[in-house]
Amino acid sequence: MNLLNPVNKSFCLHQLFESNYLKLLRLIPQLHCIQSSSITAQLYNKPALKLIVVEKTTHTLTIQLTFCSNDGEIELIDTDSSHNIRIYLDTKSAEVMTAPTNLLSIPGNNYPKAALDAKWPDNYLLDKWLSHCLSQGYELLETAHDQPIPA
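The structure assignment produced for this chain is given below.
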């Protein structure tokens, strides 16, 4: 992943954000109307994939995706709580919310480049990971017994 360093990172990140959104839409067909605080997809002989809704507003949805091992233990894809996936329903894009503390100490002229550099690896990884989940046949569908999002 370190070898992949696009020249126009801003353009490539936008492409990734749109790709991530489309893959999430395939993975979660009811993305725009989720009413549950969590949804789980179970495949035969594979870990369960669990979606947790962190925050929901009119135009955005913040989620975490986790794997539950066969013995029921939850394994976060990224255990750092600042790495949630923010889905922008109005612009049809999704990004990993990267908030590295070292960005706060960067001089003003270098901030945009550093911010793009920080966002690239996490969003690239999300794109590849979503492709993997889709190729394995995961699909997160809401059922009547899922827990509703608290008001």
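Interim note for the steering committee: Strands lie at 38-41, 48-56, 60-68, 74-76, 85-88, 93-96. The helical segments are 9-27, 111-136.
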